[in-house]
C-alpha cells in the first residue's frame, strides 16, 4: 500500500501535508467542481480559524487548491481542488467571465447571428451555426447549446422570430415544417417592440397610479407627467 | 329560503374603476340624478324599486323616471323573480332592476360603431342608426317621423322606404328588436345539479347572463321586421328558416308584448358591433404579426364563417375546407391574385402558433389564441415601459412558458445577471405580476429554490382596472384643460387672434391627443374586456 502510493505520487506535494492540511484538502477535493466556502470548511472540520486560514494558504502555495469566484456571493472565499474546473452553478456558465456576464462577448455573438440571418433572409439553426463556424471570428467554435441559448434570448427580445417553413418562396429548399429564424425588422436593426395603447400614455407607466384620484393630491388635473406630455 | 333564485352579482371582470368609469359616463350623458340610481345598481347589483328608494333616498317618482330613462337607453334591464309565498300564500313576482355595465360603456363607442356601418351602408342607414344611438330605442313609426322631419326637398320619405332601410340594418344584424321588458327568471331547483362529465363543467352564469338569455328573443324574431300594413293581419318579414321551437316562441311573443307593430321597438345591436371590432382586431393583429397575405386569408375566412357564429366571444370559427377558403379569398380585391400555393403558404404561416388550426383537412380560426397573443403584447409593452428590458425578457419567457420556473434557470435563459435576476423577479412579484413558490429540498446543500410564474388572471384584471382608471384620467384632464380656457372658448372665432390664437392652437392639440389616446385605450379595454 505504502509502496504503491510512493510510486504514483513520489514527488507529489500531497505527501508533505500536515494532518490539518490533509483533512482540509480531502474535504475540498471531495466537493469536486462545486468547491467549498471557507466558513463551511470550518464548520465541517471543527478546526479553529487560524489553522484553517494557515492551511489554506499553504495548500494554495503548493498548487493543490485554487480560489474560485462564486457568482452568487462574490465576497466569499471559495476553494476548489486544482484539477477541477468550476461548475456552471459557480461560474455562471459559458457566458460568464470572472463571475460576470460577459456582455461584450454576448453582443458579438448576437451581432454575428443577426448578420447571417439578414443575409439568408430566413435561416435554420444549422444554417446559422455553419455560417458562424465558417466566419472564423471565434477562437473556439460555439457549442450547439450556446447558439441555441443566444437565439432563444433574441426571440425573447423580439429581435428575431421563430417561424416554420412552408417550403416555398423564401423557404425554398427548407423542408416544410422546419423551424426557421427571421429578423423582426428589415435589415436586422433592433426593433422597439410595438408599444400598446396603455403603455403610450403617462398613466400606463405611472408609478403613482394607485394613489391618483380626481381630487386628491395626486390627480390628473395637477399631474406633472401630463403637463410634460402636453407641452407643445 | 324565500327567494330561490340564486343571485350572483359578481360579474367577473367589472372592476372598481370600471364601475367608476361607467358612472362617469352616465353622469356625463344624463346628469347626477340618473347616475345616482345607476351607480347604486352597479355597486349593489340588482335591486327592487323599494330597495333602490331606501339606498338612494330618492322619491318613488324620481326613481321611476330615472329607471325609465335608463331602460330607454338600454342601460338597465328589468326582470321578475318568483318568490314563494308564506304558508298558504300564492307565489308572487318581484321586479328587480339590473344595470348593464357593458351597454353603458358602449355609449362611448358610438362613433366606432358608426364607422363600421359606414363602410357597408349609405347615409340613410347611418341616419337611422344615429337616431337609435341618440334615443336608445325607437319604433318604426318614430323612425319614420324622425326621417320625415329631416326630409330634403325632392326626396320625400315614405314609411315603406324607412322600413326598407330598417330591414337592411336588421338583416345585417346591426339593429335588433328590443328584448322582453321584464322576463321571468325561473326559480332554481336546489337539488344538486346533474352530474356532468369533467369536460362539460361550465362557469356558473352571472345574473346578467341569465337575465339577458331570458329576455332576448330567438334569432328569428330578434332579427325580423314586422310589416306595418296591418289590416288586422300581421304580415311578417322574417327569415323563413325559423325552427318549430323558434316559431312557437315567436308566436307567444307576438301575442303579448310584441302584439302590434306600434309597440315593436328596435335598438342597435351592440353585440354585432363588438363582434365586428373583434374581427378587426384579429385581422390587424395578424397583419402586424405576419403579413398582408395572412391577413387577407384570415379576413376571407371570417367572411365565410361569420353567419355561422352564435356567440360573440366564440373560441374558434366554424371550419372550412381549403377550396372554400380559396373561393372566398379570390372574391376579395386583395386576394384576387393569390394562387392556391400562396394560400397554402399563408395557412402554414398562420399555423405556428396555431392562429388557424387544421384538422382533417379543414381549417378554423383560433380566435382565443389570436386575442390572447394580442393581450400579451399589450401586457409586455407595459412591463417594458415600467420595468425595463431585462424584466421584459423575463416576463416574456415566463408568459410563454406558462409554468413555474426556477430563478437560476430564468437567469440563464434570459441572459440577465444572476444577482440581478432575483431582484427583478421580486419587484414583479411585489407588484402582483408574478406568482412565487418556495421549494425546500431537505437533502441537498442548497436547500431553497424560488419558482416563479405569470399570475395571469389576477394581472389581467388588475391591468384592466388600471386602464379604466387611465381612461377616466384622460377624460378628467381634458375637462380640466377646457375649463382652464373657458374664457377663450367663449370668444367668437374671429376674435381669437395673436396670443389668443396660439392658446387656441395649443388647446386644439391637447384635445386631439387626449381624445385619440382615449379611443386607442378603449380599443385595448375592449381587447381585455369584450373580446
Ligand atoms: S394622471 Fe398622472 S399621476 Fe395620475 S395615474 Fe396618470 S400619470 Fe399618474
Characterization of this structure:
The complex is a heterodimer of chains A (232) and B (531). Chain A is α+β, with helices and mostly antiparallel strands. Chain A is 40% helix and 11% strand. Chain A folds into three domains: 13-91, Orthogonal Bundle (Arc Repressor Mutant, subunit A), CATH 1.10.10.10; 102-188, Winged helix-like DNA-binding domain superfamily/Winged helix DNA-binding domain (Arc Repressor Mutant, subunit A, Orthogonal Bundle), CATH 1.10.10; 196-232, no CATH class. In chain A, the strands form three sheets. Chain A has a three-stranded antiparallel β-sheet. A three-stranded antiparallel β-sheet of chain A has the order 6-8-7. In chain A, strands 4-5 form a two-stranded antiparallel ribbon. Chain B has helices at residues 16-30, 32-44, 49-56, 60-72, 101-106, 110-118, 123-135, 140-149, 159-171, 207-215, 219-222, 244-255, 270-289, 292-305, 322-329, 340-349, 367-387, 389-401, 407-414, 420-430, 456-484, 486-490, 498-529; strands at residues 76-83, 92-99, 138-139, 175-177, 184-185, 225-227, 235-237, 265-268, 320-321, 356-359, 362-365, 405-406, 434-440, 448-454. Chain B contains 23 helices and 14 strands. The two termini of chain B are 37 Å apart. Chain B is mainly α. Chain B folds into five domains: 16-107, Arc Repressor Mutant, subunit A; 120-187 and 205-268, no CATH class; 272-370, Arc Repressor Mutant, subunit A (Orthogonal Bundle), CATH 1.10.10; 388-454, Arc Repressor Mutant, subunit A, CATH 1.10.10; 467-529. In chain B, helix 17 runs antiparallel to helix 18. In chain B, the strands form five sheets. A three-stranded mixed β-sheet of chain B has the order 2-1-5. A three-stranded antiparallel β-sheet of chain B has the order 3-8-4. The chains are: A alpha+beta (232), B mainly alpha (531). Chains A and B meet through strand 5, helix 8 and strand 7 of A and helix 16, helix 17, helix 18, helix 19 and helix 21 of B. Bound molecules: iron/sulfur cluster (SF4). Iron/sulfur cluster is lined by residues 202-203, 206, 208-209, 212, 218, 220, 223, 225-226 of chain A. Residues 202-203, 206, 208-209, 212, 218, 220, 223, 225-226 of chain A line the site of iron/sulfur cluster (SF4). Chain A: Belongs to the eukaryotic RPC34/RPC39 RNA polymerase subunit family. Chain A: This is DNA-directed RNA polymerase III subunit RPC6. Chain A: Its main location: nucleus. Chain A: DNA-dependent RNA polymerase catalyzes the transcription of DNA into RNA using the four ribonucleoside triphosphates as substrates. Specific peripheric component of RNA polymerase III which synthesizes small RNAs, such as 5S rRNA and tRNAs.
